[in-house]
Specification:
mainly beta, two-stranded antiparallel sheet, 12 strands, 13% helix
Protein backbone atom coordinates (compact mmCIF):
# COMPACT_ATOMS: atom_id res chain seq x y z
CA UNK A 1 0.00 0.00 0.00
CA UNK A 2 2.88 2.37 0.82
CA UNK A 3 4.34 1.82 -2.67
CA UNK A 4 1.00 2.69 -4.27
CA UNK A 5 0.79 5.92 -2.26
CA UNK A 6 4.31 6.87 -3.32
CA UNK A 7 3.45 6.24 -6.99
CA UNK A 8 0.24 8.30 -6.79
CA UNK A 9 2.12 11.08 -4.99
CA UNK A 10 4.74 11.06 -7.71
CA UNK A 11 2.08 11.52 -10.43
CA UNK A 12 0.47 14.39 -8.51
CA UNK A 13 3.85 16.14 -8.46
CA UNK A 14 4.40 15.40 -12.17
CA UNK A 15 0.93 16.79 -13.00
CA UNK A 16 1.56 19.93 -10.96
CA UNK A 17 4.94 20.53 -12.62
CA UNK A 18 3.44 19.96 -16.09
CA UNK A 19 0.66 22.43 -15.45
CA UNK A 20 3.07 25.03 -14.06
CA UNK A 21 5.43 24.64 -17.02
CA UNK A 22 2.52 25.14 -19.45
CA UNK A 23 1.32 28.20 -17.57
CA UNK A 24 4.76 29.78 -17.53
CA UNK A 25 5.50 28.88 -21.16
CA UNK A 26 2.49 30.89 -22.32
CA UNK A 27 0.97 27.97 -24.24
CA UNK A 28 -2.50 29.07 -25.37
CA UNK A 29 -4.62 25.99 -25.89
CA UNK A 30 -8.15 26.14 -27.11
CA UNK A 31 -7.60 29.18 -29.30
CA UNK A 32 -6.89 27.38 -32.56
CA UNK A 33 -8.96 27.70 -35.70
CA UNK A 34 -12.61 26.85 -35.52
CA UNK A 35 -13.18 28.59 -32.20
CA UNK A 36 -13.66 25.31 -30.36
CA UNK A 37 -13.16 24.71 -26.65
CA UNK A 38 -11.30 27.48 -24.89
CA UNK A 39 -11.34 30.87 -26.55
CA UNK A 40 -8.28 32.23 -24.80
CA UNK A 41 -10.46 34.43 -22.57
CA UNK A 42 -11.46 33.38 -19.06
CA UNK A 43 -15.06 32.19 -18.78
CA UNK A 44 -15.52 31.66 -22.52
CA UNK A 45 -15.24 27.91 -23.11
CA UNK A 46 -17.61 26.18 -25.51
CA UNK A 47 -18.15 23.03 -23.45
CA UNK A 48 -20.30 21.47 -26.16
CA UNK A 49 -17.25 21.34 -28.46
CA UNK A 50 -15.76 18.64 -26.22
CA UNK A 51 -18.89 16.43 -26.32
CA UNK A 52 -18.53 13.49 -28.72
CA UNK A 53 -16.25 10.60 -29.56
CA UNK A 54 -12.57 11.23 -30.27
CA UNK A 55 -10.26 8.73 -32.01
CA UNK A 56 -6.46 8.55 -31.92
CA UNK A 57 -4.38 8.67 -35.12
CA UNK A 58 -3.63 5.29 -36.75
CA UNK A 59 0.00 5.23 -35.58
CA UNK A 60 -0.96 5.31 -31.88
CA UNK A 61 -0.76 1.65 -30.83
CA UNK A 62 -2.80 0.44 -29.12
CA UNK A 63 -5.56 2.69 -30.44
CA UNK A 64 -7.40 4.99 -28.04
CA UNK A 65 -10.98 6.17 -28.36
CA UNK A 66 -12.68 8.31 -25.76
CA UNK A 67 -16.19 9.65 -25.53
CA UNK A 68 -17.26 12.71 -23.61
CA UNK A 69 -20.97 12.11 -23.13
CA UNK A 70 -22.07 14.92 -20.84
CA UNK A 71 -21.04 17.91 -18.82
CA UNK A 72 -21.43 17.21 -15.09
CA UNK A 73 -20.63 20.49 -13.34
CA UNK A 74 -18.03 23.18 -12.86
CA UNK A 75 -16.31 24.48 -9.77
CA UNK A 76 -13.59 26.84 -8.71
CA UNK A 77 -10.42 25.21 -7.41
CA UNK A 78 -6.91 26.25 -6.49
CA UNK A 79 -5.84 25.61 -10.10
CA UNK A 80 -8.64 27.72 -11.62
CA UNK A 81 -12.07 26.78 -12.97
CA UNK A 82 -12.59 23.03 -13.42
CA UNK A 83 -15.26 21.56 -15.71
CA UNK A 84 -16.14 17.91 -15.00
CA UNK A 85 -17.41 15.50 -17.67
CA UNK A 86 -18.74 11.93 -17.81
CA UNK A 87 -17.74 9.55 -20.57
CA UNK A 88 -15.66 6.49 -21.35
CA UNK A 89 -12.24 5.46 -22.65
CA UNK A 90 -11.54 2.44 -24.88
CA UNK A 91 -8.06 0.97 -25.22
CA UNK A 92 -6.73 -2.60 -25.28
CA UNK A 93 -4.54 -1.99 -22.20
CA UNK A 94 -7.48 -1.10 -19.95
CA UNK A 95 -9.09 -3.77 -17.77
CA UNK A 96 -12.01 -5.06 -19.86
CA UNK A 97 -10.94 -2.83 -22.78
CA UNK A 98 -13.18 0.07 -21.74
CA UNK A 99 -13.69 2.17 -18.63
CA UNK A 100 -16.73 4.31 -17.85
CA UNK A 101 -15.90 7.60 -16.17
CA UNK A 102 -18.37 9.37 -13.89
CA UNK A 103 -16.20 10.75 -11.06
CA UNK A 104 -15.15 14.35 -10.63
CA UNK A 105 -11.48 15.28 -10.64
CA UNK A 106 -9.90 16.24 -7.32
CA UNK A 107 -6.36 17.62 -7.14
CA UNK A 108 -5.73 16.05 -3.74
CA UNK A 109 -6.99 12.57 -4.69
CA UNK A 110 -4.06 11.77 -6.99
CA UNK A 111 -4.54 10.08 -10.36
CA UNK A 112 -8.10 8.85 -10.79
CA UNK A 113 -10.33 7.97 -13.73
CA UNK A 114 -11.62 11.41 -14.73
CA UNK A 115 -12.35 13.67 -17.68
CA UNK A 116 -12.00 17.36 -16.94
CA UNK A 117 -11.03 20.72 -18.39
CA UNK A 118 -8.92 23.06 -16.31
CA UNK A 119 -9.17 26.73 -17.18
CA UNK A 120 -6.65 29.10 -15.68
CA UNK A 121 -7.04 32.82 -15.01
CA UNK A 122 -4.95 33.73 -18.06
CA UNK A 123 -7.33 31.82 -20.40
CA UNK A 124 -5.37 28.61 -20.87
CA UNK A 125 -7.74 25.64 -21.01
CA UNK A 126 -6.48 22.04 -20.97
CA UNK A 127 -8.47 18.82 -21.32
CA UNK A 128 -7.32 15.87 -19.22
CA UNK A 129 -8.54 12.30 -19.84
CA UNK A 130 -7.26 9.68 -17.39
CA UNK A 131 -8.38 6.02 -17.33
CA UNK A 132 -7.24 2.84 -15.60
CA UNK A 133 -6.05 4.48 -12.40
CA UNK A 134 -8.99 3.35 -10.21
CA UNK A 135 -8.26 -0.36 -10.59
CA UNK A 136 -5.27 -2.54 -9.88
CA UNK A 137 -5.88 -4.50 -13.10
CA UNK A 138 -4.84 -3.60 -16.62
CA UNK A 139 -2.91 -0.58 -17.76
CA UNK A 140 -3.54 3.16 -17.88
CA UNK A 141 -4.26 5.80 -20.50
CA UNK A 142 -3.36 9.42 -19.88
CA UNK A 143 -4.25 12.14 -22.41
CA UNK A 144 -3.44 15.82 -22.03
CA UNK A 145 -4.96 18.22 -24.58
CA UNK A 146 -2.65 20.73 -26.15
CA UNK A 147 -4.54 22.79 -28.73
CA UNK A 148 -7.54 22.81 -31.06
CA UNK A 149 -6.81 22.44 -34.75
CA UNK A 150 -10.14 22.91 -36.50
CA UNK A 151 -12.37 20.08 -35.28
CA UNK A 152 -9.38 18.11 -34.01
CA UNK A 153 -7.50 18.07 -30.71
CA UNK A 154 -3.77 17.63 -30.26
CA UNK A 155 -2.71 15.53 -27.30
CA UNK A 156 0.22 14.27 -25.34
CA UNK A 157 -0.54 10.53 -24.98
CA UNK A 158 0.86 8.09 -22.42
CA UNK A 159 -0.26 4.45 -22.55
CA UNK A 160 1.15 2.15 -19.90
CA UNK A 161 0.63 -1.58 -19.43
CA UNK A 162 0.38 -3.63 -16.28
CA UNK A 163 3.28 -2.93 -13.97
CA UNK A 164 3.52 0.61 -15.36
CA UNK A 165 5.37 -0.60 -18.47
CA UNK A 166 5.56 2.07 -21.18
CA UNK A 167 3.69 0.97 -24.31
CA UNK A 168 3.22 4.25 -26.17
CA UNK A 169 4.23 7.83 -25.47
CA UNK A 170 3.96 10.84 -27.74
CA UNK A 171 7.33 11.42 -29.40
CA UNK A 172 9.27 14.27 -27.89
CA UNK A 173 6.75 14.72 -25.07
CA UNK A 174 4.82 17.39 -27.00
CA UNK A 175 1.18 17.82 -27.97
CA UNK A 176 1.43 16.30 -31.43
CA UNK A 177 -0.95 13.32 -31.54
CA UNK A 178 -4.05 14.62 -33.36
CA UNK A 179 -7.37 13.07 -32.32
CA UNK A 180 -10.33 13.38 -34.67
CA UNK A 181 -13.93 13.79 -33.59
CA UNK A 182 -16.31 11.23 -35.10
Amino acid sequence: MKGLLKIRGFWVVVLALTVLSLVFSGCKSGSGSGGKGGSGKPGEIDLTAYIGTWVSPAYVEPAVEFTISEFLESEDSIVGKVYHFAGSVKCAVLAGGEIAITDKWNLLAGRRDTIHVQQYDDGIALLFVDAGFDTMEGGTVQLTHGQWVGNKLTFYVSIRGEGDTAIYETAGGGYTDVFTKN
